[in-house]
Structure formats: C-alpha cells, structure tokens
Amino acid sequence: MPPEPQPATRRPRRETVTGVPRSGRRPPGHAPARSEISEQTTLGHTYVRSLMRSQLRAALSALATLALLVGSLPLLLTLPAALAPDGPAPSAEPFLWAALGAVVHPVLWLIARWYVRRAERNERDFTGLVEGR
Amino acid sequence: MNQTYAMAAVAAVVAATVLIGSLGLRISRTTSDFYVASRSVKPALNAAAISGEYLSAASFLGIAGLVLLQGPAMLWYPVGYTAGYLVLLVLVAAPLRRSGAYTLSDFAEARLESPYVRRLASLFVVGIGWLYLLPQLQGAGLTLEVLTGAPDWFGGLLVALVVTGAVAAGGMRSITFVQAFQYWLKLTALLLPALFLVTAWVADDAPRARFDAPAVFREHTSVRVDDTVRLALDAPLTVTVSGTVDSTTYDGRRTTLGEGLHRVEAGTTLGFPSGARVPERSPDPDDPLGWSGSLSGEPDGQRLYATYGLILATFLGTMGLPHVAVRFYTSPHGRAARRTTLVVLGLVGAFYLLPPVYGALGRIYAPELALTGDADAAVLVLPDRLVGGLAGELLGALLAGGAFAAFLSTASGLTMSVAGVLGQDVLPSRGVRHFRLATPLAMAVPLGLSVVATNVPVADAVGLAFAVSASSFCPLLVLGIWWRRLTPPGAVAGLLAGGGAALTAVMATRAGLAPDGWPHTLMAWPAVWSVPLGFLTMVGVSLATPRHVPPGTPATLARLHLPEGLIGRPHPEGAER
C-alpha cells in the first residue's frame, strides 16, 4: 500500500539543496503534464480522456469476451433442439453440467486477471507519460 | 437429524460471531474505523470478507434446492452471481473506490453534485437492502425450524439480534473480521461434507442423477406433507396413505390414485414403494408466490428469454447491491480494489463448485423434498441420508452452522450498509452515535415484514433485488463513471424509469396481475427490457438537459480514473468520514 503523497499544491516541500539534481531527473510533482492535469487545462483533460479511453477499451474487451464465451451459451444450447425439430434432440445436459458447474468459473477468473493486468499496465504507461520518464 | 448437534453448531457460530465482533470493538475507535475500517483492509482479508458477505443463504442452501427441483439450468444463478463480480470489476471497481465516497448515495452526490439525486439513491439503497434482508431472515427461520423444531419466527429474530448487536457495537472494522471468518467457515462447511457424500455416492456404485425424467424413489419412503399440496399425476400411483387425500380419510391403507390432480391435506403421510416416480407438485392457484422463478416447464422461447432475464439481472445487478458497493471503500486505493475483486472472483468461484454437487445428490437421494416443497433443506438432510450414523449427524451439524453463518454474514453486511445510509441521510446528524441508533432501525423493518409476509421464496426475493439494482444503479454507476454528459435530471429519470419499472413488473406478477404466457414471462423477468429502459432514459434525458451537466464533471472524472498519487487530489468533503 503506497502512502498517498502530500498534495504538491497544498504544502510546498521543504528541501535541503546540496547540489545540482543528479542525472537531470525532475523532482516529482513538477512535471509539466502533471501540472496540466492538476490545473485542469484543456491539455490536462486530453490526458485524462486518453487514459479513460484506454481503460474503457480494456473493460469493453473483457465484457465482449464474457458475452461471447458465457452469454452465448443459452442460445447455443437451443441449437440441438432447433437442428432436430422432429426426432429426439440430443440431451445438452452433460454439457450444461460441465460448462455451468465447473468450466465457467476458471474462465471468468482468467478474463478478470487479463483485465486487471491490462488496466494496471494502462495506468503505469499513463504515469510514465505524465511524469516524463 | 439429531437436534442437539445442530443446536450446538448454530450456537457455536453465533458465539464465534459475537466474540470476533467484540474483539473488533476493542480496536474500533474512530468514525472512519466504523464506516470503512479506516480504509486499510488488505486485499486478502477484504476479499474473504466480501465473499463471506456475498455468499448468502440463497447460495448456501438455495442453489442446491433449485438444482434438485429443476436441474442444471438453475446453475445460471451461481454463474450469474460470479459473473456479476467480473462486470463490477471491469466497469466500476477502481473508479468507485477512487470516488472517495462511502455509500452509493455518496457516489451519486459526488458525481452529480445534486442533493436530490442523493436522496433518491438513498431511497433505492434502503429499498434494495430491505428486499435482500427479508429472505435472509425468513431463511434463518426456516432452517432453525427444520433443524430444531423452533417456531419459524425464532431464527429470524436470533439473526436480527446478533447482527444488530455486532454491527452497532463494532461497525465495519469488526464486521470485516467476522465476515472473513464466515467465508472460510462456509467453504469448510460445504466442502468437508461434500467429500464424505461423494465417497458414499461412489461406494453406492455412483448412480446417475436424471433430470430429463421425473425423479424416482430409490427405496420405500414415507413422506409427511406439512402444508396442503396439490399433486399432478400423469399415471396412476399406488401409495399407502394415512391422512386425507381428496377429502377421503385413510388410515395407512394402500390405495391407487388415478391420473390427474390430487389434493393432499396438511399432516398426511404418504408411503411410496421403491421405484415409484416422485409426483410433481402442482402450482397452487391460490398462492400468488407459487410461480417461484421457474426456468423450465415453459415453451422454449420463453425459457430462453427467462434465462437471459436472469443473466442480465445477475451480471449487471451485483454492482448496485448496497452491501457489495460499500465494501470497496474499505480498500486503501483503486488498484487494491481491483486486486481484491480478482481474489473475490477466485473465492466465490471455488465456493460455487460445491452447491451443484449437493443438488445432484439431492435429486438421487432426497427426491421427496420436491414433493414437500422443502427443497432448500436438501443440503441439510443429505449427510443423514448418505453417510448416516454419528458422522452423518456431525456433518449435518457442520452444514447447519455454515448455513447460519451465511444468514449472519449477509445480514450483517446489508444491515451495515442500510444503517450507513439511514444514519447519514435520514437521521439528523452524522456520527457514530447515530449510526448505532440507525442499526436497529435498519433491521426492524425487514424483521417486521418477515413476520407479516411469510413464505417469500428465498431465491425469488433475492432475484427481485438483483433486477431492481440492475435497472437502477447499474446505469447510474456505468454512465456516471464513463460518460461526461450525465446530468442530475437524467439520473433521476433513469433511476425512476428503470428501477421503478422493474419493481412494478415483479410486484404485479407476485400479485397475480400478469396474464399467463408471454406477458407473465416478460413481467417476471423484467431485466431484459428494464435495464435498457434505465440506460436509454438516463441518456435521453441527459442529452435533453445539456445545461445541467455539473460544472465539476471533468475534475470528478479525473479523480475517478487517475491512479492515486499522480496529481494533487483535493480531498472531497467527507472522504475521511
């Protein structure tokens, strides 16, 4: 759990200056993109929008996978009956047990893990972009 | 079943709950502790607490009962409960935590800057919370009645007292520990007996459960009918009857009941020979609650529609359940909220592997439960049937304890969130003292209802809560988090149209106002149309009132989506409440 850093705008940090900053790294809180965002300029909004778009894309991909793999099952299960309108339809029961009773849970978890990794990568990339690293 | 063991197990669970709750009391000091456990709960502990809270009686007892009655199509319930968390994770988990608010009402106010939206959201939180609490209390009553013969109001009262005490005393901090403990208890209580049951089933040459044909009695079985039932026979059936069938009184004679409907009076004992088919219980026209969420027995098209109604309600409704949402505020930051949800998905998924086992075994070994209408008791009676002896009794007691843990944990989470909203929005001032006053109030209403309105099936009332939540809070959260042009009038209109329509439709079905066939199906499973209605109304009215877009929207959205610590975050009023 990283502690929430003090907001730069409220309490200016007191620093002891002993020399030139090493390797030209800017101290955090003074990167230009960062202040664009915290001062809510148009450019700052564009940054936020770009993050929202990438996060929404990740979320929608996960939802599409869910709809495709799980949401389509009820339709899929009506297929045997639709294909054999007269004769006895092959029973979908064993498939239903396997799919809904067991297989679906690891599938859901894998989709979730994919999403969490992707969302965290989006946030890391964004932080890197804003802090100019 | 041996009553002493079951009583001891239930007493032990209650005692453990009170004990852990009072340990939490010693460290619960500040208001922040009370409401959000000081926002410092680590993912592993928080995930166990969330899962413990989420797995209610409907999961512990209800799913096995539904599978016993209606077969594997009922597994859409647990799948929906789990997938709801996935949808919650990808759409709202991290932003909801980052919104820095505590209840759904706080979120509505922070995002839309309108006290009206806040008040309406509070109304929905309390309503959905009470709808969900009611079946927990009734389920507790039923379980204690089945296990120990206590009067049916006693279980509900016991749960209400324990929960009110634990919540009012320790708040969120102590509830977190209690619920984490209860998750592991519930998992153990279901896993351990399942291992024994499956072993016994294999030793019995592993008979297959059949769901495409009526269940069959495996041995001579006597069934006592406690409530008057109507049986529909499609072939003559020879049984021994002591009691009254079709207003003729028998005293243990063998008799043959012809095809058609038969009315079996309460208190009658029917003796079925080995190999006889279990007769179908026919829906009672006098009982408006008798429709009981059936996904089978309807024409194909309606069944498909009902399945999708269930899928939409559970997939989208989870995010709006008050006790689920409140939990996210106890994570330290957005990333932890996401990781917590991932662990929850694992824990909940692992749990849901077990109830289907009980359902299938119940179909083989306890088919008469379909006849007496106590299918919810399948989980509780199986150890006695399959294992028997002392081991069977001990396992049955373990299951009883687990079932009680299910009532207690879900009821405490719900009470916690309803009391939070009541304490902030209804009672005059904010603070721990008022929270303590709000707790009994939050519990008293559903307790009163559970005494008045008996026989609401557990899964039905829970399903209603999901449908209302999916049609009201799902649009509010999703549009609030991802759409810049949402306005307060749009939110109000969407909440009322979606949530109101879902509530009205289900209530009308309950009251028997819906004509048979498609209208009935459409109204009993409203989510397919009421969720789009909620979304479309919210979007449409928002677009029509563009001047009402809250001025702080860009700043709020930045706070919802940016990782913590990236920018100076103004602390919203009440964030450290």
Automatic annotation (TrEMBL), chain A:
The chain crosses the membrane at residues 59-83, 95-116. Residues 1-41 are annotated as: Disordered. This is Uncharacterized protein. It comes from Streptomyces roseolilacinus. It comes from the Bacteria. Keywords: Membrane, Transmembrane, Transmembrane helix.
TrEMBL record, chain B:
This is Cation acetate symporter. Gene3D superfamilies: Sodium/glucose cotransporter (1.20.1730.10). Its main location: membrane. Residues 269-295 are annotated as: Disordered. Keywords: Cell membrane, Membrane, Symport, Transmembrane, Transmembrane helix, Transport. It holds the Pfam family SSF. Signal peptide: none annotated. Belongs to the sodium:solute symporter (SSF) (TC 2.A.21) family. It comes from Streptomyces roseolilacinus. One of its GO terms (biological process) is plasma membrane acetate transport. InterPro entries: Na/Glc_symporter_sf, Na/solute_symporter, Sodium:Solute_Symporter. It is found in: Cell membrane. It is a multi-pass membrane protein. It comes from the Bacteria. GO terms for cellular component: plasma membrane.
